[in-house]
Amino acid sequence: MTKKLLVPLTKSAFSHKILAEIEKFFPPEKTKLILYYVTKPPKGSGFAATDYRSDYALASEGEPLGPKAHPVFASQEEDSIQSDVEVALLAETNALKEKGYEVSVQTCFVDDAISEIVRITKRDQIDLIAMSTRARVGVSRFFFADIAEKVMQKVDIPFLLVHPKD
Fold it and tell me: Whole-angstrom Cα distance, residue 19 to residue 3?
């Protein structure tokens, strides 16, 4: 039976350290990896700047006659981020696929990563969540609650947590 592993990632290289650990515990032929990149939703950045380096003819005021500033919408930024994520993870996904793992990449744009990870876990019937986490203790743990710990409190499936050295 194939196990479905959800691997929440961020742009932090620290979060990617879990991938090497997964290979130690889960055989490729029985494991489907869902690399789940979590980030804040873009708001749209207003207008893109005019490219004055272009070789368009200039109007009498010095403005290029070619393309003008245009709006950049949140959906366009999401598409761009999605592409960037896929490119950034390409080497890791290809290496995992070469070893025999079934790998998919999903990008999530939410303000509340914890609720989204819980939702996806239930929706996709995930068997295990694998994450890198910082081992915080004392006062720092109180002020900087760990995402992994909060997710663990809300789901009833196994976790693989790794505390790699920075």
Answer: 15
